[in-house]
Amino acid sequence: MLNQLRPALSRVITPVGRALARTGLTPNAITLIGTLGVVGGALGFYPRGEFFWGTVVITVFVFFDMFDGAVARVTGKTSRFGAFLDSNMDRVSDAAIFSGLIFYFARQDHQDLLMIGLALFCLVSGALVSYARARAEGIGVGATVGIAERGERLIVSLVAIGLDGLGVPYVLAVGLWLLAVASAITVLQRFVAVRRQLEVLEVSEPS
């Protein structure tokens, strides 16, 4: 869904990308700095229950990481390895966010096993959403469908965690449940889409 906003975002991101390119930062360096910032924010703040400030730090570095593609385009340094690195570092960032939550829930005197399981499900299902797309592209079909791509998942999770840090009741549980359901639906949507495409290809192939 956020893909529809990409033309508007590009008009904002591209000028910043030009400015960053003049500093000498490479696209891959931006990717790595953004990832380290997210990991540091998630594992440094979340296990201690400092959800608001952890989310602030993570959000800053998530936005910073958005400029790697813009720098690559304005400098002409786009590469397949850069795309590979960016995709893998996204998975590391996502894992750090939910791992930080899991550490927090596990450290409580009365461990909330439901919230631990819910955060773990969000972590695994989010990874499966991305893997389904990558694997589909690997066999020659597309799987970009779904109600909860990474951008949507990040917004839901960070808003819920940050508001919980401000003392809003129940918002973290509601956010994780919403994220879990949306991720599961997205996985199913991608499985169905790939299956239909493969059926069409099988019918069209000469016997």
Written overview of the protein:
It is a single chain. This protein is an all-alpha fold and 207 residues long. It is built from 8 helices and no strands. The radius of gyration is 19 Å and the shape is flat.
Ordered list of secondary-structure elements with their pairings:
Elements: H1 6-22, H2 27-45, H3 51-65, H4 67-75, H5 80-107, H6 113-138, H7 150-165, H8 171-204
Helix pairs in contact: 1-4, 2-3, 2-4, 2-5, 3-7, 5-6, 6-8, 7-8
| DSSP strand tally | 0
**What integer is the average pLDDT?**
90
User: Share of helix among residues?
Assistant: over 70%
**What is the percentage of strand-forming residues?**
under 5%
From the N-terminal CA to the C-terminal CA, the straight-line distance is 39 Å
Largest sheet: none
Q: Can you count the helices?
A: 8
- How big is the Rg? 19 Å
- The gross shape turns out to be flat
Structural class: mainly alpha
Which regions contain 5 or more consecutive residues with pLDDT less than 50? none
Element pattern in H and E: HHHHHHHH
Structure in a nutshell:
The protein is an all-alpha fold and 207 residues long. It has helices spanning 6-22, 27-45, 51-65, 67-75, 80-107, 113-138, 150-165, 171-204. The relative contact order is 0.11.
Keywords:
mainly alpha; single chain; 207 residues
